[in-house]
Design a protein that fits this description.
632 residues; alpha+beta; Glutaredoxin; five-stranded mixed sheet; four-stranded antiparallel sheet; 22 helices; 9% strand
């Protein structure tokens, strides 16, 4: 039997529509049920391509005993974090405050008034790994709720108040200045992995905004180390297992320091931002390697993530089904190979260059790749990564570079064709406004740098789709999500800012004034709905939904850029394009607000600091309180 989620549009919620858990979507029905029954809320937040979300579903939410306990003692709510990032941000901040960490699936327990009092991420089905199992957690929460409800409600209110104070903390305004840029570079450079590229010495979670900052810092200062760090890291990423060497595009992150073993999901926002930084790398160096990676990623998006009308889908899953059975889903199954499969598909010469270039061996570990399968998750199969250049591989195979290149290209085409008949990973086909804005901007930028008209055509089609289906100019509203013919969910700051940025990029690439007009209109709506007139900067949400208990201001350029960072850059650009004092005042107030917050941690918002760099390029970037005050 289906539960209430069967009526939803979200692919993630629909994945749980046949769980025995009596799930509710986020909304008044669930809240009223919890209040009427006097039960705590179990809130589970994730997204459709989340590997550990799938694991917890199989282990716990499909377990009839666990479901029965949840149904008796809790009101259970499912949220797709990609549809409702506003809810996710509030409760992620709460979980991080309570536990010191976060991630998905996120598991949070709330009072009927939606106040969080306990939380975590993935819970195993039984006590193991030194952590309590999900049934144990449920029993303890139930008992505590019955015996200590007053204390729970008090602690939930205290936690919410702490989040409000943390979010609204105000400090002395700091003018945009070069010292912040220098401090950010020094911090980033100190974390650089000199052996493998990238940052840190464990799993590698690329933040594309860091590369944007490093390129701008190189342009400003001529610091060769900034350029070297960026280019070396980008080459390592694209040579490693994070890059799909057959089909193009990037997986989410690398689980090891060497970039060899990826977490296999593919997200649109990663493709968009990485297309831009690889295009920038090519513009600086004219090295065809970077252009090839950008084109390969664009090809993947056009082939696999594009709707018939031009909008871009959200993601592809990490898991796929080896034999078509839903119970055989394995992470990376679509992408990994045995040596036997490769030899059977290729000629002897093709196999020789392919297996050497991609470090293939019969056991699946890869030559020298002792970390390629640390937990046996890939069953001894090979993850493609390229430790050699083509020149090195050709020399090792004792053949000419031209011959090796032709054989390698032929082999890749054959292996891609063979892979295409495997069961594909799940496609999350919802279209998200902000992520489409990022991709539109990346394609417009790539069209200008690479001279590829296909990119410009794709950017224009996507912009027309967003303008037609997600933006209602008469009602002055942007919707966040489109799926199945329906636009829904109020857009948030990052949607407005990223779509406006994409439209500005498209205007610069085409000189078509309608895209600038859309960007100006969206920026005006953004100011009216999200601007914090007291402290400066923009809230992530409009404040219209009373179930979102804290209006957050995202302060981290992570896997996705923070809305304030994109908004600040847009305002600096618009202040030049439109020569409007209001844009200069808003950009200045936004930069001053966040420059004061990130003085001690400037690397937290590298994209905002890129906007600082852009601001400082203005002939008259200095402002007084009067000249840059935001008009009422």
């Amino acid at each position: 039997m289906s539960n209430r989620l069967s009526k939803e549009k979200s692919p993630y919620l629909l994945q749980h529509a046949e769980n025995p858990v009596d799930w509710y979507p986020w909304g008044t029905d669930a809240f009223e049920k919890a209040r009427a029954d006097g039960k705590p809320i179990f809130l589970s937040i994730g997204y459709s391509t989340c590997h550990w979300c799938h694991v917890m579903e199989r282990e716990s939410f499909e377990n009839h005993d666990t479901a029965a306990f949840l149904n008796e003692h809790f009101v259970s709510i499912k949220v797709d974090r990609e549809e409702r990032p506003d809810i996710d941000r509030v409760y992620m901040a709460a979980v991080q405050t309570m536990t010191g960490g976060g991630g998905w699936p996120m598991s949070v327990f709330l009072t009927p008034e939606l106040k969080p009092f306990y939380g975590g991420t993935y819970f195993p089905p039984a006590d193991m790994y030194g952590r309590p199992g999900f049934p144990s957690v449920l029993e303890r929460i139930r008992q505590f709720w019955v015996e200590e409800r007053g204390k729970i409600e008090e602690s939930g209110e205290q936690l919410l108040e702490a989040l409000r104070e943390q979010n609204d903390a105000d400090g002395e305004r700091v003018e945009p200045n070069e010292r912040l840029l220098d401090a950010a570079f020094e911090t980033i450079a100190a974390s650089y992995d000199t052996e493998h590229g990238g940052f840190g010495h464990g799993a590698k979670f690329p933040r594309p905004a860091v590369f944007t900052f490093l390129f701008r810092y190189y342009r400003r200062t001529g610091n060769e180390n900034a350029l070297r760090i960026a280019l070396t890291s980008l080459m390592a990423m694209a040579s490693g297992g994070m890059y799909d060497h057959l089909g193009g595009g990037f997986h989410r992150y690398s689980v090891d320091p060497q970039w060899r073993v990826p977490h296999f999901e593919k997200m649109l926002f990663d493709q968009a931002q990485l297309v831009r930084v690889y295009t920038d790398a090519y513009a600086i160096t004219h090295d065809a390697f970077f252009a090839e990676v950008a084109r390969g990623t664009i090809g993947y998006v056009m082939r696999e993530l594009t709707d018939a009308r031009g909008g871009f889908f959200s993601a592809e899953d990490a898991d796929s089904h080896e034999d078509g059975s839903p119970h055989a889903a394995r992470e990376g199954a679509y992408y990994v190979w045995t040596r036997r499969e490769i030899d059977a598909a290729l000629t002897t010469d093709e196999s020789r260059i392919f297996t050497l270039y991609y470090s293939i061996d019969a056991q699946g570990a890869g030559r020298g790749n002792v970390a390629s399968d640390p937990h046996g998750e890939f069953g001894g199969k090979n993850i493609l990564f390229a430790p050699h250049t083509l020149v090195q591989a050709a020399d090792l195979c004792m053949m000419g570079v031209e011959e090796a290149g032709a054989l390698l290209e032929s082999a890749r085409k054959k292996m891609l064709a063979l892979r295409s008949i495997r069961p594909r990973p799940l496609l999350d086909d919802k279209i998200i406004a902000g992520w489409n804005g990022l991709m539109i901007g990346a394609l417009a930028h790539a069209a200008s740098v690479l001279g590829d008209e296909r990119c410009l055509t794709a950017a224009v089609r996507a912009a027309e789709f967003v303008a037609a289906e997600l933006y209602d100019g008469d009602r002055k509203i942007l919707y966040r999500r489109y799926r199945g013919g329906e636009a829904s969910n109020e857009a948030h700051l990052d949607d407005y800012a990223c779509v406006a940025a994409g439209m500005l990029d498209l205007y610069e690439a085409t000189s078509d004034g309608r895209w600038k007009d859309v960007a100006v209109a969206l920026t005006g709506i953004q100011e009216a709905a999200y601007w914090d007139s007291a402290a400066g900067g923009f809230y992530d949400t409009s404040g219209k939904d009373p179930s979102v208990l804290v209006r957050m201001k995202e302060m981290y350029d992570g896997a996705e850029p923070a809305g304030n960072s994109v908004a600040a850059m847009n305002l600096v650009r618009l202040s030049r394009m439109a020569d409007t004092p209001r844009y200069q005042a808003l950009s200045h107030a936004t930069l001053r607000c966040f420059c004061s917050k990130i003085q001690g941690i400037p690397h937290m918002m590298p994209l905002l600091l890129s906007a600082v760099d852009e601001w400082l390029l203005q002939p008259e970037s200095a402002c007084t309180e009067e000249s840059c005050a935001v008009p009422p």
